[in-house]
Write a structure and sequence with these properties.
1% strand; 334 residues; mainly alpha; globular; two-stranded antiparallel sheet; 2 strands
Length: 334
């Protein structure tokens, strides 16, 4: 009798490849955290400050990613919620001398409530119309902050003391602020990950892919659209609060509409819908404008735009998508 040759079982291969993916991701996270903890002890204070700002922008972009990348809603006013969080923390510290840790939940909560309010018109608007509404918020916020000078400090802004490192830590001020920001960023990423892996994440993805089909499946469009704006604003408010701690100064001119546009550009370059996209976007938001300024002081905006075009040409799905494609090309053992 002729022997029948058996083909290799595809199920085992599938399990191996599926299991290798999470292992690679967890290994990358472990290496990244180790490098993040090691970096402030090897860098000069200015570079530590730059990394701190990268983490702050990453938290803000984490919220924008929930809204744009996972819920499919457009926003050109994310910088306004960033400013709301920053000014809430600054006013609490300046007027009421509230302890620094308490300003974080208050700033995030105020931004969350304002995000809920913005989510109401979002239930009826989409696309270009929704983008214009969010853009209008970013535009009128600056003159609004200047008008209420008794509270916000007007055009002069508010100057604040930075958190002082405790004696037991043995850390310099820049290192202490960095580790505070790192802890908040890690907590924010874990919160976003748990949201996306829950029923909420599945509802947001259904809303993004096809609103009609999502509604047929039982997803309450109005509720999840509103909550998407609120969650997005909450992350931005928390980032704005930490920004106030790190900078020690807030003024209306720090939160112009350019900030909102830069944040959106950073998210697109980093990678929409990717959990690591906001981190790469934070690097982009922090370093690319300064690089553009160094290349050509007369026209940094032109250089900035050309760099965005170049990155999107090389990586249409963002830097996170490019990294994922490169990792998949690495040969693995059978």
């Amino acid at each position: 009798m002729s022997q029948v040759k058996r083909a290799p079982a595809p199920v085992a291969v599938g399990k191996t490849s599926a299991a290798s993916g999470p292992r690679w991701r967890w290994a990358a996270v472990a290496v990244l955290l180790a490098a993040a903890c090691y970096a402030p002890f090897q860098l000069v204070p200015f570079h530590v400050f730059q990394l701190t700002m990268v983490l702050i922008y990453a938290v803000a972009l984490l919220g924008l990613n929930l809204l744009v990348g996972h819920a499919g809603q457009i926003s050109l006013g994310h910088g306004a919620f960033f400013a709301i969080g920053a000014y809430t923390a600054a006013i609490l510290l300046d007027r009421w001398a509230l302890p620094y840790p308490l300003t974080l939940p208050v700033a995030a909560g105020v931004a969350f409530l304002l995000g809920l309010a913005l989510g109401v018109p979002a239930m009826r608007l989409r696309g270009l119309y929704l983008a214009l509404v969010t853009l209008a918020i970013a535009i009128f916020l600056v003159p609004l902050l200047k008008r209420f000078e008794a509270v916000t400090g007007g055009s002069m802004g508010l100057t604040l003391a930075k958190p002082v490192p405790p004696g037991w830590s043995g850390l310099a001020e820049d290192q202490w602020l960095y580790f505070l920001t790192l802890a908040i960023a890690v907590a924010a990423f874990l919160l976003a990950r748990s949201l996306l892996r829950s029923r909420v994440g599945r509802a947001l993805h259904a809303l993004r892919d096809d609103e009609t089909a999502a509604e047929v499946m039982g997803v309450r469009l109005s509720s999840y659209k509103t909550l998407a704006f609120a969650w997005s604003a909450m992350f931005a408010g928390a980032a704005g609060c930490v920004y106030t701690w790190v900078i020690g100064f807030v003024s209306p001119d720090s939160f112009t509409v350019n900030l909102s546009i830069t944040l959106l550009a950073g998210l697109v370059v980093g990678g929409l819908g990717s959990l690591f996209g906001p981190l790469l976007g934070g690097l982009f938001v922090m370093f690319v404008p300064s690089i553009s300024q160094d290349i050509n002081e007369a026209a940094p905006g032109v250089i900035f735009g050309l760099l965005i075009i170049a990155v999107m040409y090389v990586a249409p799905t963002g830097l996170a998508g490019l990294a994922e494609r490169l990792i998949k090309k690495i040969p693995r053992k059978e």
